[in-house]
Amino acid sequence: MLRRWVLAILMAACGVLVAAAQLADGLPVVGGVELLVFLALALLLSPWAFPRSVGAADAQRASAVDGRPIVYWRPGCHYCLRLRFSLGRLARRAHWVDIWRDPAAAAAVRAVAGGNETVPTVVLGGQAVVNPDRAWFRQQLRSS
């Protein structure tokens, strides 16, 4: 569970250290701004930047009922982050599954990605697309 937060914790810790160094040098405003930048990066790299993650089995059951796509992702993945923020509010129309939180999800991704845990992987209508085009996926979510 801690592995999901490592990058966010490191960013926050670096921000505190940099801010403390700037404060010691007599530059509190610069330190405060740098701290805010590092905290923003920590937020972006944390699981909080994504919709609530569900388990792979729950996502598969729900997708079978409602037809919404499943997005397999992991914290710290900049491709996942780019996909997430390009979707905006449309991201809520998909089931998000954190592969670091669910071993079955990691296995599902390996099964469709040639043994690799390449994310984001989208499963839509039974078809898996590894690292989908953001514009294409946005269009799929709008039409569903």
Automatic annotation (TrEMBL):
Domain Glutaredoxin: 71-128
Transmembrane segments: 30-50
UniProt KW keywords: Membrane, Signal, Transmembrane, Transmembrane helix
Domain of life, per lineage: Bacteria
Signal sequence region: 1-19
Keyword field contains Repeat: no
InterPro entries per record: Glutaredoxin, Grx-like_ET, Thioredoxin-like_sf
PROSITE patterns reported in the protein's UniProt record: GLUTAREDOXIN_2
One Pfam match: Glutaredoxin
Name used for this protein in its record: Glutaredoxin domain-containing protein
